[in-house]
Amino acid sequence: MSPKKITTADHEIVCQEGESVLDALLREHIDIPYSCKEGACQSCMIRSTDGAPPTNAQKGLKDVLKHQNYFLACLCIPHEDMHVSIGDSPVTFTDGTVTGKELLNPETLLLTIEFDEPLDFYAGQFVNLKRADGLIRSYSIANNRVHAHKLTFHIRRLAGGRFSEWAHQELAVGDKIAVSDPQGLCYYLPNDLEQNMLLVGTGSGLAPLAGIIEEALHHGHRGEIHLYHGSREVDGLYWIDEMRQLAKAHPNFHYTPCVSRGDAPAGITQGRANEVALAALPSLKEWRVYLCGHPEMVNQTKRKAFLKGASFQNIYSDAFHVASSTLE
Amino acid sequence: MSATATTLYEQLGGEAAVNAAVDIFYRKVLDDHRINRFFDHTDMEKQAAKQKAFLTMAFGGPNNYSGADMRRGHAHLVKMGLDDSHFDAVMEHLTGTLRELNVPQNLIDQVAAIAESTRTDVLGR
């Protein structure tokens, strides 16, 4: 084994024989967080940008992180030259064309954007949409990979929300809009088709979850799939019929719409989606859990799912932080 | 150094032991009403990674913790009222976790002594 070249965004360094990437970076005074140097704390996690890193350098990482070629610098003795990215990599944008606008409920817009070139994305990831004046907002992708030229989004109109108001009222079919590379780690990988899945979403948190479910069913997922979608009132729910039909077509898919305020009409469960879900499922040991929506719901449920037996390795989440309050 | 002079970290089982311990330890901590409020606004996944680093250190493994880091990392909790009683509760869960993993008492005592040595920094004294 001869010395290997490690290329970062700003540096090119040499990793000596038997030396870890972390030690090489530190020797060259390149700023990288680290702590245990033993593969336990995961603080020195970085990403290989030109192919898979050595497998043993990915020990203990979540499947989606492995999938995106993240690895632990402290465990990595390179077999060949590597290009790595430390910290957030710059985001590039591609222009798409708006081809569809449809209301899913009074406050949620289904926006469809199509592209000339196919995109590499996973349902559940998100992109940044950029308006011509530079205003940027993140939205989850709601469709699956089968539609590689198309992305759909559920855009909830927020009181005083500059982007969402504009998307609802001014953005028109035929307009061009800049869309970033897909990002995020809350998505489905078909590496265990027998694993049971719990998905909990509030409001437009249904978007990534619906995409993940479609993706799972497309891969023939055989474990039980439980979706709990919640809103304050029935008006905030959507795709009720679509989800019910999906549940009819796939006996392993179970759908429970929930409302947290007032009495629930027939067929809808009264209560917060996350609480209803946790009360209904006895144990989440070995389950895969997806949580999308209100940050507080996501954070609380993550903890409760962990206490109910799910491991953090199997919990995927995307908290929707918003700049303004939702329309009541 | 002779081949038998293994570290406490290695004697406990290295990274695999840390992974096993972190889950058991965290379930104990989050189930304990005396201390779980300190984690109300914490991203537990990131916290679990920090906890792995902490246990690596407590197990006497290689680490990069300094007293200053410990002080900085816990200052907001001290403002929330973190005191000796909470530190004791965490110690109790740490030793309880190791007992559950059938770690011999002499090793538990060594881990406890390392964790105990962070008390003044954690409590910002």
From TrEMBL, chain A:
Pfam families: FAD_binding_6 (PF00970), Fer2 (PF00111), NAD_binding_1 (PF00175). InterPro entries: 2Fe-2S_ferredoxin-like_sf, 2Fe-2S_ferredoxin-type, Beta-grasp_dom_sf, Cbr1-like_FAD-bd_dom, FAD-bd_FR_type, Flavoprot_Pyr_Nucl_cyt_Rdtase, FNR_nucleotide-bd, MRET. Residues 4-90 form the 2Fe-2S ferredoxin-type domain. Its cofactor is [2Fe-2S] cluster. Residues 91-189 form the FAD-binding FR-type domain. CDD domains: fer2, FNR_N-term_Iron_sulfur_binding. SUPFAM superfamilies: 2Fe-2S ferredoxin-like, Ferredoxin reductase-like, C-terminal NADP-linked domain, Riboflavin synthase domain-like. PANTHER family: NADH OXIDOREDUCTASE HCR, PROTEIN RFBI. This is 2Fe-2S iron-sulfur cluster-binding protein.
From TrEMBL, chain B:
One of its GO terms (molecular function) is oxygen carrier activity. It comes from Methylomonas sp. 16a. The keyword Iron applies. Belongs to the truncated hemoglobin family. Group I subfamily. Heme binds at residue 74. Coiled coil: none annotated. It comes from the Bacteria. Its cofactor is heme. The gene is thbN1. Binds 1 heme group per subunit. The keyword Transferase does not apply. PROSITE patterns: GLOBIN_FAM_2. Keywords: Heme, Iron, Metal-binding, Oxygen transport, Transport. Gene3D superfamilies: Globins. This is Group 1 truncated hemoglobin. Signal peptide: none annotated.
